Amino acid sequence: MNFAPLRALQSARELHLFFSSILMMITGRVRRSGAVLLALALLAALSGPAAAAGRVALVMAAEEYAAAQPSGIGVKRAAAIAEALERLDFDVVMAANPTNATARARLREFSDAVGEADLAIVVLAGHGITWSGQTFFLPANTDIGRPTDLLSRALSLGSITQITGRAKAGGVFFFVSQPRFRAPVAGLDPRPTITGEAPAGTVVALSTASSVPVSQIDTASAQAADAALAVLAGSDPTLKDLLGALEDGGRALVVGTAADMPLRRPADPPPQPVAVAPVVPETVARGASEDASADRLALEEAEEAIALERQRADEARLAAEKAQADVLKAQAEAAKAQADAEKAQADARKAQADAQRALAEAERTKAEAEAEVAVATPDDTTGTVSAEPMDERDLGRRQRQLIQEKLRDMSLYTGPIDSIMGPLTREAIMGFQKGRGAAVTGYLTPDQYDALLATGE
């Protein structure tokens, strides 16, 4: 049964006065109609069972966070807990993935309903963080840059406990997951805690104790939520049973003592027989029927609108996740292509260096081999056997330059005149020797040196 239209009437006494006013109005205007007896019947029925204290609950769960990773507890578990409480005759206020404004609105709605309730229960599921000894529940759009932002962008566990404590008995159960913000915020503690004392008759339980490692907070909380759901699905559970499920294995942090109070609402006493007119005036019956039809239509339209908004939100979330996945894939492919290009460049540089080393080694080997060859051939001018190569260390800088200049004049040398007897000079000498029919060594004999310098004079 939904008591939302009467939520502003916070006590049975106010409800009694409300219907008494209706009775006075009806008896003054339609004293002779059957409406008098109808009002008397309503007043008699509501003055008894309606005065019995009720069961109220607030179930709030956040899973999809804008500035942190998703919570591992899940809205699905919280919704199942809300359904179980409704089966136990609780008047449940439910908020799934609420923003900060929605969360505060649902908390005010719950606060209005606590009033004269004999049992009030709050179930929180989602990210929690501790600062300055206070633990906060984070709505789905919470984004903080400094610890003081929590005061306006999150819900304090202490404030929620004080609201719940206005009932005759109550329990606050927080199934905590650990947030990982995109940018770390100094001064925050990922481990939830409870400071101070709970109001009389109220118990506060966190799903993870100090003995649970920080890395296991999400897992321990999910197990605790499943255990609580199992208790609520049982026959005639009590508030003490619910607390025991969380304390199993010492994994919960508890302040206060849970009363051994049944969670199911006690059965209402049978209504006392009252004299009711056998025929309800047609105008009253028709008005009540029209009001009920209008309420049902409004409720159906609201449910359809909520379902449509959820569908749109899910589609938008899936599209955003796909776009993000595509971006990550493109980034990975670009990084791989860049790595392949850098590797190819490195391989090319290595191959070029190897080729240069091989060429230098070949030239050195060739020069050494030619220097070691001592082929005795007749000299083309003297007719005698050529002598050993001259010792170039005896040559001065100017003499070496003259060798290069003479070889250049003969179009045999194309290098710089630098007095360095390098590979180009050796090749030019070999050309000179070959033209004279001498041994091709690249090293001048004394006779060849004299003949080369005499060339052109």
Any overview of this molecule?
The model is unreliable at 1-12, 29-33, 35-52 and 373-386 (pLDDT under 50). The chain has 457 residues and is an alpha/beta fold. The protein has helices spanning 12-29, 35-47, 75-87, 100-114, 150-153, 157-164, 217-232, 239-247, 282-372, 397-409, 423-436, 446-454; strands spanning 55-61, 91-96, 119-131, 134-137, 155-156, 170-177, 202-206, 253-255. It contains twelve helices and eight strands. The radius of gyration is 49 Å and the shape is rod-shaped. Strands 1, 2, 3, 4, 5, 6, 7 and 8 form an eight-stranded mixed β-sheet that branches. The protein has four domains: 1-52; 53-265, Rossmann fold (3-Layer(aba) Sandwich), CATH 3.40.50; 279-372; 392-454, Orthogonal Bundle (Muramoyl-pentapeptide Carboxypeptidase, domain 1), CATH 1.10.101. Strand 1 (55-61), helix 3 and strand 2 form a beta-alpha-beta unit.
Strands, count:
8
Fraction of residues in β-strands? 5-15%
Shape: rod-shaped
Number of domains: 4
Topology:
Blueprint: H1 12-29, H2 35-47, E1 55-61, H3 75-87, E2 91-96, H4 100-114, E3 119-131, E4 134-137, H5 150-153, E5 155-156, H6 157-164, E6 170-177, E7 202-206, H7 217-232, H8 239-247, E8 253-255, H9 282-372, H10 397-409, H11 423-436, H12 446-454
Parallel strand pairs: 1-2, 1-3, 3-6, 6-7
Antiparallel strand pairs: 3-4, 4-5, 7-8
Helix pairs in contact: 1-2, 3-7, 7-8
